[in-house]
Write a structure and sequence with these properties.
One of its GO terms (biological process) is riboflavin biosynthetic process. Pathway: Cofactor biosynthesis; riboflavin biosynthesis. The chain is α/β, with parallel strands linked by helices. Helix content is 23%, strand content 22%. The chain has seven helices and ten strands. A ten-stranded mixed sheet has the order 1-9-10-8-2-7-3-4-5-6, with helices on both faces. The longest helix is centred in the first third of the chain and has 12 residues. The chain starts with a strand and ends with a strand. 38% of the residues are buried.
């Protein structure tokens, strides 16, 4: 993997043998990638919300309903790195079901690095669901760190009771899940570095409400064709959201972009 933006310093040495296995061995090492995607220092009581998506060159965020076919080894490396840098991974219930979500996997050396940086050894998965239509036997709940379920007060009581056995229930609104309340609840639990992996509806709500700080986007070198979901879906916004490109990486024709968005006050 090589850095295109910001450009490398003239004459900077390559790092042979340090890149992720299966990737070009003259590019970035893991500590380089950590630096590229480092979360800024946060003021007390605030959240930093980063999204991570992969899409084809024509904007398809899924193939046959799932995103896995779009990403290669480098995308999976970035995917893991972003999880390792996060306090919590937030996902919508539909995506959790479709992608058969499981718990975050953190190897021993990364656990040590997380603890040294003041993070918990493993980030929990937090699922946003108003209906609570989740299977308590799903692999998501077979985790060393209990998942969080961010829901509404009016969610079906029987489903809440069943899921309370396998997850921590967090009420974030009366008739719907209020995303501002959800973020405040995560911060109150010591989880301010938020990584969201979708789906497109949740992503659109976060961006449209001015709650998204960063978009990390992998552009895969393929065409998905007509009829696919993009990285945002749902209700339209009153205006477009401008972004600033801060990093651009490349590996085997795939582009890895990191954008910053201005939070709405």
């Amino acid at each position: 993997m090589r850095r295109l933006l910001p450009p490398p310093e003239p004459g900077s040495p390559t790092r042979p043998g340090l890149a992720e296995p299966g990737l070009a061995q003259d590019g970035l090492a893991q500590d380089d990638l950590d630096a590229v995607y480092a979360v800024p220092v946060l003021p007390p009581g605030t959240a930093h919300v980063r999204s991570n998506f992969v899409a084809s060159a024509d904007g398809a965020a899924e193939v046959n309903g799932r995103s896995g076919a779009l990403g290669g080894p480098a995308d999976r490396w970035v995917f893991r790195t972003l999880r390792w840098l996060a306090d919590v991974v937030v996902v919508g219930a539909g995506t959790a079901r479709t992608e058969n979500y499981g718990p975050a996997i953190v190897p021993p050396e990364r656990r040590e690095a997380r603890v040294a940086a003041g993070l918990a050894p493993v980030p929990p998965i937090a699922v946003i669901s108003g209906s609570m239509e989740l299977d308590p036997a799903a692999r998501l709940f077979d985790a060393e760190v209990r998942p969080l379920l961010l829901t509404r007060a009016s969610a079906p009581a029987d489903r809440v009771a069943a899921l309370r056995e396998v997850a921590d229930i967090v009420v974030c609104g009366e008739e719907r899940v209020d995303l501002k309340v959800a973020l405040a609840e995560l911060v109150a639990r010591g989880l301010p570095r938020v990584l969201t992996e979708g789906g497109p509806v949740l992503h659109a709500q976060l961006a449209g409400d001015g709650l998204l700080d960063e978009l990390c986007l992998t552009v895969a070198p393929l065409l998905g064709g007509p009829g696919h979901l993009g990285i945002v879906a749902g209700l339209s916004w009153p205006s477009a959201r401008p972004m600033e490109l801060t990093h651009l990486l490349e590996e085997d024709g795939a582009l890895f972009l990191r954008y910053q968005l201005a939070r709405e006050q």
